[in-house]
Amino acid sequence: xxxxxxxxxxxxxxxxxVKQEMIMxxxxxxxxxxxxxECSQQLDDLLNKHSEMTQQEPxxxxx
Length: 63
Description:
about 60 residues; mainly alpha; 2 helices; about 70% helix
């Protein structure tokens, strides 16, 4: 699905790039290496930001 929001598109691109970098670092240096862990934390931050940007308003139910 193509997103219309340019900021969201950039964020998704960043997520993909950081994920690929983290995989490469993990394969080269191991999962517990400081570089891999830092990259993983950066990916977590990006994913949290994506979640915040795409979170929808909760439905309010009236009785």
